[in-house]
Amino acid sequence: MAMGIEISSLGVDFLKVDPTKQCVIIEDELSDIADVDELRESIPATQPRFVLLSWRINHSDGRVSYPMAFIYTTPRDCVPKLQMMYSGSYNHLIAECGLTKVFQIRELEELDEEWINSHLA
């Protein structure tokens, strides 16, 4: 069995900063992502988001694992105040989640099949 990511097994939590309460909240949870295009389209293009990904990897020895990664999306044309709120929460959130696979994306177009396979496989 070849090792690889099964996109159909991709689970995603979208987190956002609530400016009123000044805390990070879960905005949405998806467990039925069909492909990377659907993932990219689920992320706002003009606002920052924290994205927690979990995916299935089939190892050559028959084992299955479900690693996690953290992606911080921060569009270039976002309101500076909002970017500052997300940047201020970034390190604390990574520490709380205990994740080591951490990435930042400025342009959502970067998030494609090639990016997924090169960064997460």
Automatic annotation (TrEMBL):
Organism per entry: Hyalella azteca (Amphipod)
SMART domains hit by this protein: ADF
SUPFAM superfamilies, A to Z: Actin depolymerizing proteins
Full protein name: ADF-H domain-containing protein
Gene Ontology MF: a single term: actin binding
One GO cellular component term noted in the UniProt record for this chain: cortical actin cytoskeleton
Record-annotated membrane-spanning stretches: none
Every ADF-H domain range: 1-121
